[in-house]
Amino acid sequence: MKVKPRIVVSRCLGFENCRYNGQMITDSFVDQLKDYVEIITVCPEVEIGLGVPRAPIRVLKISNDYVLYQPETKRDLTKEMTEYCKNFVEKTTEIDGFILKNRSPSCGVGDVKIYSDYSETLLPKRESGFFGRIVRDNFHSSVVEDEGRLRNLKIREDFLIKLFAFANFRKVRNEKNMGSLVEYHSHHKLLFLAYNQYRYRLCGKIVGNLEKLSIEQVLSDYEKELSKLLSGHIKIGSMINSLQHAFGGVSEDLKVEERKYFLDSLDEYRDERIALSVITHLLMSYAVRFEKEYLAKQVLLNPFPLELTTASRTGRDSNIS
Ligand code: SF4
After folding, report:
1. Helices marked H in the chain — which ranges?
2. Which of 35, 106, 145, 177 is deepest in the core (most CB within 10 A)?
3. Ligand 1 site: residues with CB under 6 angstroms?
């Protein structure tokens, strides 16, 4: 079912020298992704006509209204940026994820300095930049992260899992076929149970379609519920349950020593001594050996291309916020 995800990336992350100071930033994760995803780049500041290099801009919050301001020129760029963002939302579809430059008054998501007025007075709480905010508010079936947070391997793993899950769903949505939706829901079962059991069951009810709704309505309802399910993070207890559930499908075929080895490995994973991928590889090897097709097709065992993973990852949610 794997599909090539489509992502939007801030152009200064390795594509063009478009930062205010005429530079760009090398991002090894974005580089690594290039072979596995389709990338669309944006630079909102250049696209509203600001040159390179340019005087820095900042976000002000005055009486609850956001203002994009360039102190050096005293230009108010709010109208231009708001129009650019509105256009972007109207014209951009079929996107599974965003990787945006952190701290930028345009691209930043959640970590941008906000000034209370035209002076140097900062508000205590950081928020999103103009473009970052519009992305967060409008692209609910996409995973949105900034490049700074993605340096954390657990956040990166969470991002990749969601990116490929959204991309796989996009294919189902475009096929408009009930069989494809049933297959998608079934193949993602153990993964989604690790995210949120309650929401997985709500998704199941939608797939059940007792009310005989149209395929368009079913897909739309499923997409809304899926977005809520994937807005959370994997919990260790739920992940252990999913792994035990998967193990239940093969344990009777294993020797006593093999069963013990798996359960010991699960304890090591629980204690953060080994990566999640060690457990999922073990399970996949059992699924292949005993020809357990249901298990082999579970996305949990292979949620994104192996080349994008790293050995140090455990799949925990401790650093995710
Ligand atoms: S952060 Fe966004 S607006 Fe700023 S240079 Fe990078 S892409 Fe352009």
Report:
1. 28-33, 44-47, 78-91, 130-138, 153-175, 178-187, 189-195, 197-208, 215-229, 236-248, 256-270, 276-289, 293-296
2. 106
3. 10-12, 18-19, 43-46, 101, 104, 106-107
- pLDDT at residue 275 in the model: 82
| Six token digits for residue 61 | 């919050």
Q: What is the mean pLDDT of residues 217-238?
A: 95
Helix (H/G/I), strand (E/B), else coil: 146: strand
Residues 138-163 have pLDDT tens digits of: 999 999 999 999 999 889 989 999 99
Residue with tokens 């231009």: 80
Ligand 1 centroid–CA 164 distance in Å is 25
**Burial class of residue 197, CB neighbours in 10 A (0-12, 13-18, 19+):** middle
What's the pTM? Answer: 0.93
Q: Which residue minimizes the CA distance to atom 8 of ligand 1?
A: 43
| Residue 18 Cα: closest atom of ligand 1 | 5
Give the mean model confidence (pLDDT) for residues 85-94.
97
Looking from the CA of residue 104, the nearest atom of ligand 1 is 1
What SS3 state is found at 308?
A: helix
Distance 194 CA to ligand 1 centre (A): 35
For range 264-272, the mean pLDDT? 93
